[in-house]
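User: Please predict the structure of the protein below. I'd like the answer in structure-token form so I can feed it into my own downstream comparison script.

Assistant: Understood. Taking the following sequence of 400 residues as input:
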Amino acid sequence: MKILQVSNRVPWPLNEGGTIGIYNFTRAYAELGHEVVIYCLDGKKHKTPVTEAQKELSKYARVFIQPLNTDVVAKDALLDLLQNKSYNVSRFYNADFESKIIELLKSEKFDVIQVEGTFVGPYIHTIRKYHEGVIALRMHNVEYEIWERLATNERNPLKKYYQRILAKQLKKYEASLLPMVDITATVTDDDGLKFKALHPTGEYCTIPAGIDLDVWKYTPSYRFKRFYHIGSMQWHANAEAVNWYMDKVHSLICQEDKEYSLHLAGKGIQTAAFASHAQLSVHANVPDAYAFVAQHDVCVVPLWSGSGIRLKILEALAAGKLVISTTIGAQGIQYTDGVHLVIADTPLAFLEVYQRLRSGELDYKRIIQNGRLLIENQYSTIALAEKQLAKYSTLSKQKI
């Protein structure tokens, strides 16, 4: 098959779950023998090393990258608010990018166009106009749900009110996209049910984000004192999670054990913001995520506003790390609490897990082994890509 991916971000470097999810399928499609083209928007804030990205992605696909300024402009946000339009989405519209897509579709035919998420929605109408094959919408998250949860957790009444408006606008917008595509692929069954409630007659499939087992080699930790969190602090849900953990949990475990330490890494981390915390190391730049993870023991995922599936958990399980997560953080993963990972939803629950680790009550070595087996059996990228392409092939034949 000939496949075009249209993305709101450049899937390089591999330092965020979204970029990893897109990259893994680009690579898998190519390695399965399909011709791949990827057109990407590149938000200025990401500071993408474009030459490096072009070189890496060109191993698997023809690549086009369109620079874009997605910085929030108060005047534009207010105008969209007055017009009841989703400013979250409108920031990703670029006329030059749309023109390049039209040029491509006029000159080449594709079997499948895979649109990578809500924020590439503004281009679906144009794609439908110039493309007769399958259009697949791959939803990495339920965006409106993230904003609903942010609003629920927000204490500032003005911010809470505005976030609720943004959530409603996103929900309406995401509902409008579903009838425009031939199939919506979600990363969890739960996400699929939420979208199906918005458009019951649509075609849906669940294809989790995949893990490259050649990259994420099994390097189990037989210690438990070096906790870590890796994730972009430019994503509001990660920032909320880390700040909650630092405010509510970190000091409790520090009081429990002076040998415990926490290591934070990810794009946009402000070292100075955490200067007052003991037993903490902040790694502002991590060029190799696997090397960072391999050096630590326990992956902590204290999310309260996420949606979709957390690739960082899947990577940690593949690498042989114990994962301690909130229920929201682990949603979408086919896990059993205490078998594949450990759930903690309150500060005291996180502390109790640590106490059980110290006392030997928690058999974390067995949990680590089970976590790796879960990834091998259910979350390998090649197997998932084959499943997704089989679905696309069936739809493509129906269009002939």
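That's the full token string. The chain has two domains: 2-210+380-399, 226-378.
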